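Project outcomes to date are best conveyed with an example. Our students and postdoctoral researchers have been running inverse folding experiments weekly, and each run begins with a structure described purely in tokens. The record below, which covers 140 residues, was selected by the lab manager from last quarter's runs and is presented without edits.
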């Protein structure tokens, strides 16, 4: 049997979350309630798989302070729930987290998976952060 990758687990989690939200939006609360334990279990599995995958790598990602940052992000994402946007953190905090993950050596794909957002959103936020940093540098 082939190894199940963290990205496949994350995709499965997103699919089950979508099914749950669809049932809820269509007024089938009992179906949505039955899917909630599945979503929570998958969320834990995805978090553990991503953490163990990152833990085996070299560089900044394997450093303990970086791992603490990742756990905080995962906790915020799971507390905010699917489709809740930035309720778990402000835009500024989220931008700082993305910048920290990027400067720590994570790729835009890895950041997107950790944060539960699209790759384009990661690129956009990082681009805006670079422009903001440049503007502050020019002001000095």
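After processing, the design step wrote out the following sequence:
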């Amino acid at each position: 049997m082939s190894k199940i990758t963290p990205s496949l687990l994350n995709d499965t989690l997103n699919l089950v979350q979508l099914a749950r939200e669809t049932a809820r939006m269509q007024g089938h609360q009992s179906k949505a309630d039955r899917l909630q334990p599945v979503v929570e279990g998958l969320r834990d599995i995805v978090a553990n798989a991503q953490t163990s995958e990152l833990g085996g790598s070299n560089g900044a990602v394997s450093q303990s302070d970086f791992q603490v940052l990742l756990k905080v992000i995962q906790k915020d994402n799971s507390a905010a729930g699917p489709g809740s946007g930035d309720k778990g953190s402000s835009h500024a905090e989220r931008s700082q987290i993305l910048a920290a993950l990027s400067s720590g050596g994570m790729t835009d794909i890895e950041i997107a998976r950790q944060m539960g957002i699209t790759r384009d959103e990661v690129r956009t936020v990082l681009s805006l952060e670079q422009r903001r940093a440049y503007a502050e540098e020019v002001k000095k």
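The mean pLDDT is 74. Residues 4 and 49 are 9 Å apart (CA to CA). The training component of this project remains on track.
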